[in-house]
Amino acid sequence: MKQGPLPSVDSPDDMAGPADLPTCGPLPARVGVTGPAPEEPLGVVAVGPAGADRRAVLATLLGLDPVMLTVPTGSWLVVRNAKVPTRAAFVPGYRQPHSYGADRNAAGPALARPPRRVELSVPEPLLRHFTLIDSPDTATLGVAGTRVLLDAAGRAGALLFVIAADQAFTAAELNLLTEVAPTSVEVVFAVTPGAAGWAPLADGAATTEGAGASVPPAEGAATEVDSASVTVAAHRAALLAAVPALAGARWFPVGDADSAADLRRALVGWSSREGLQRASVDPPVLPGGQGRIPVAADPGDWSERLDRHTRSCAQRIRQHLALELANIHLRAVQEIVFGVGCAGLPDLLDREMAALSLLATAQCDQAVRGIMTDVVGRVLAAPPTEGVRRRIATAVQYGLVDDQPGHELDKVLLITSTAGVATLTGPEAIDALASYPAAARAEVLPPVAVALSGGCWQQWRTPGNDDHSAARAWSQRAVREVELGLSREISRRFEVIRLSLGAVLSDAVDHGILLA
Fold first, then answer.
1. Distance between CA atoms of 86 and 119, rounded to whole angstroms?
2. Per-residue pLDDT band at 498 (split at 50, 70, 90)
3. Under the phi-then-psi rule, with left for phi > 0, alpha for psi from -120 to 50, and beta for the rest, what region is 169?
4. How many CA atoms lie within 13 A of 302 on its CB side?
5. Nearest 5 degrees, angle CA 310-CA 422-CA 408?
6. Closest alpha carbon to 514 in 353, 394, 426, 338
7. Which residues contact 447 (CB under 8 A, 6 or more apart)?
8. 66-84 per-position pLDDT tens digit
9. What is the DSSP code string of 207-272?
10. Residue 405 carries which DSSP code?
């Protein structure tokens, strides 16, 4: 069936002239590493290539059987501390997680699609310091998966890269580390024995000189330990040739429980420093967090400016997301034609939707902050402090609830097997889509959430269903429907922001006092 042209996402009312349009400010063009919020829990994100025994390293750190850390391909694993062991799979399309046993003999539930994440809770002292997160293998991340990983590492605070002695850094892995290097994320490397053990000593091999205090030779070390140190030094030299900014990263050979003890102590030491730093960033009482705030004698045309500003931001975000969806469709076609084929389409599109959700959420959050700073600043005749901003955000959130009876903003968009978009509401449904869940949000709007339903996996992984033409047509229709659905959601979100924030500020102007 032929597809007609996409309806315009912008109405004539949105197209104000440049002179009349308040600037929406720079919006993030892609997902990347962001600084962690003070309320974010500490976390260590483990990543690395397949075959590096990353799961064994994590199991050694936690003192668990590696089988307990098994998750479906493409899913994330989040390990937390708890008195009672539990394990749950969070699957898009469901409001409640699927619970299954946390012992080594328990099989996972039969699911229509892989979960976005599996949460394992175990009583382990190490997890009192930080949450441990295991991500998919680097070769399976792709463009979108890498962006999701960067976001998770920025919020968690630390990245543990595990590589085997007989492996080399790929271009994608070097690009990932290059993006992390200039940020505040703590990067730690663990090198494990390869298929033939530690690499043997060879003429011209790198020496431990320059490896730093991170890999000191043990007192009375044997030849095997020397081989491990030389292998670590060689990996470090190869990395620094491409990413010199990681010269301060620490390296650890990990072959057994004794060698993993140094890595464990290093991660605990990082968590102590990072915890103190985050606690000092956010004071207990923010300036402007209490008391009445006088309003400017003449706030001017703040109401008209709010109207124009919300329309401007909604329009820019819709345009950004339309361009991103066009790129997603291109990558989907490349996967069908040159990659795994039709069977790989659900995995790729679901990763793309996860990254798109993070991008749309970040853009909405930043735009709303800009709107509040600009319009509230006019009403108060001074830029609002963080305490004032949070109080106004809370008042606006109450208004969002009142203005949306039966039309919740907590909405999940699910791509169906017919290339349509179904909706599911509720904060629990949104939480099921997070690869690495964030702390309680301080932003006004709930996250944007898009994912694939289980029917997509059943359709394109059915044996014999390898029609490339049908898959390309299906992906095009699915991307079109997501674009239209997101366009409507973005417009509605900024309309309710306009109404709720306008009501808060109108009341303040009428009474001469904000937040009495």
1. 8
2. very high
3. beta
4. 26
5. 45
6. 394
7. 357, 361, 430, 441
8. 999 999 989 999 999 999 9
9. PSTTS-TTSPPPTT--HHHHHHHHHHHHHHHHHHHH-GGGTT-EEEE-SSHHHHHHHHHHHHHHHH
10. T
Q: Which residue has the tokens 């997101």?
A: 486
What pLDDT sits at residue 23?
60
Strands in 157-164's sheet, in edge-to-edge order, are 98-99, 86-90, 117-122, 76-81, 131-134, 43-47, 157-164, 186-192, 250-253
* Pairwise CA distance, residues 498 & 11, whole Å: 17
Q: Reduced to 3 states, what is the DSSP secondary structure of residue 31?
A: coil
C-alpha triplet 225, 165, 67: angle, nearest 5°: 100
The model carries a pTM of 0.88
Please report the DSSP string for 333-350 in residue order: HHHHHHSS-GGGHHHHHH
- pLDDT 10s digits, 321-332: 999 999 999 999
What are the Cα distances from residue 431, in Å, to 96, 434, 450?
A: 9, 6, 11
- What spatial distance separates the first Cα and last Cα of the chain, rounded to whole Å? 59
Q: Which residue in 136, 130, 148 sits closest to 33, CA to CA?
A: 148
Q: Which residue has tokens 């997603």? A: 328
Q: What is the pLDDT of residues 384-411, one digit of tens each?
A: 888 888 888 888 988 777 655 446 889 9
Contact present, 79 and 133 (Cβ < 8 Å) = yes
Q: What is the pLDDT of residue 258?
A: 84
Give me the phi and psi of 497, to 5 degrees please.
Answer: -65, -45
State yes or no: pLDDT of 383 exceeds 90.
Answer: no
Strand-pair category, 186-192 with 250-253: parallel
